[in-house]
Amino acid sequence: MQEETKAKAPRREKLIRPRGKRGGVKHRPKGSVKQAHTVAIAKYHALEKQIAQTTDIAERSALEKQQRKLGGLAKYQDQSTTGSATDRGGESGKWCAKTLKNIIAPDTKISLLDVGAIAGTAYTKYTSWITTTSIDLNPRSENVHQSDFFDWPAPSAEARYNVVALSLVINFVGDLHKRGELLLHAHQYLRPDGYLYIVLPLACVKNSRYMTHAHFTALVNSAGYSVVCNEDSAKLTRWLLQTKAPKSLTKSQRKLSSKEKLMAQYWDGIVYKKHELLPGDAHNNFAILLPKSYCPYCKRSKDVISKLNVDQSKVGVLELDQTNDGSDIQNYLKEKTDKSTVPSIFISGDFIGGCDDLLKIQSDGELDKLVANI
Questions:
Q1: Residue intervals in the chain for CATH 3.40.50.150
Q2: What are the CB-based long-range contacts (under 8 Å, 24+) for 367-374?
Q3: What GO terms fall under cellular component here (predicted)?
Q4: How does pLDDT run across 162-210, given as a tens digit for each residue?
Q5: 256 or 366, higher pLDDT
């Protein structure tokens, strides 16, 4: 009997899936996830900045509609933590706790206000010595209070915090003046020897046309802080600042609003406008402005001058924070008067000085004489 032969089935080749076809994060091309959430964050930030700058109601409504299409604040929070959850919360909290441990006395217990906390988990590992109060515009946990930092009640002097943490908060604010105001606002919550902890994307100080490490150091110094420690990681720049002793308020300054009192106590009068430090369109536009228009000394000086028996049409007021060449004018005034603070007051071309000088010649009866012939 002839033996029956069977044909062998062809051997199946190993199935190789093209990378990324499964749809999981680990199978996607390297960098694709990062690129997607980075683009989403950039779009949201750009809209936030435009909303802060516009005064047109219809335009504001259209911009807010675009933000809602992106998913709103909740989606922004999701995107800001995608691929960098440890950078957003735990790692930043870890760095702050470690740095504080190195500079405070052993067994010291501290209170901390965590602004922009989202889930409020940044300091959960340190509850034995850090008591945390967490706030956020859109909290993701019942342990986080819903509040804007500017609306959070300022505590009594005895209940103030040892630390205020602004982790990825300043860069979220679209209004450049509000960013500077945040620095001054934090003083209301800090004890006299308290610390302000700031975290920013590294690109804010390393790839901005208007900000560098040195410029940021000078700016926070003008806002009433000294730099205790600064450290950069691959993505973030972290700063621990300590508040300086406030200046004593004069009798007239005690009548100022709370915002103006902060300016009088902590701001040294140096104005920070947009000044190009790193030219080139390839750089980002991150900037922080310390507003001159809110200066209590300027306001007081303008109040005094407005009440003089003089034709007010002959009085000129130049707001440097609202002038394109404000930085150049300030530099010129420094060369001319040897002063970099504001206001700079001139009468008939002669430099009188600042607010205190104006008030002195007013009390001496000299001011009316100086303006009599104007």
A1: 85-266
A2: 367/304, 367/308, 368/308, 368/309, 371/308, 371/309, 371/310, 371/347, 373/348, 374/310, 374/311, 374/314, 374/347, 374/348
A3: nucleolus
A4: 999 999 999 989 889 899 999 999 999 999 999 999 999 999 999 999 9
A5: 366
Q: Give the span between the Cα atoms of 328 and 334, in whole angstroms.
A: 10
Give me the residues paired with residue 240 across strands: 197, 229
User: Hey, what are 206's tokens?
Assistant: 């390393």
Decide: pTM greater than 0.70: no
**Does the pLDDT value for residue 155 go beyond 90?**
yes
Q: Could you tell me if 51 and 57 are in contact, meaning their C-beta atoms sit under 8 angstroms apart?
A: no
Please enumerate, by residue number, every residue annotated as part of a binding site for S-adenosyl-L-methionine. 116, 136
Domain with CATH 3.40.30.10 in the chain: 296-371
Q: Give the whole-angstrom CA distance, residue 211 versus residue 286.
A: 7
CATH topology of domain 85-266: Rossmann fold (3.40.50)
Write down the pLDDT at residue 329. Answer: 81
Residues making up the binding site = 116, 136
CATH classification (class only), 296-371: alpha beta
Q: What separation, in Å, do the N-terminal and C-terminal C-alpha atoms of the chain show?
A: 134
Question: Is pLDDT above 60 for 30?
Answer: no
Distance of CA 285 to CAs 26, 174, 282, 333, Å? 33, 12, 10, 27
Tracing tokens 């516009």 back to the chain, one arrives at 54
Residue bearing the bigger pLDDT, 303 or 40? 303
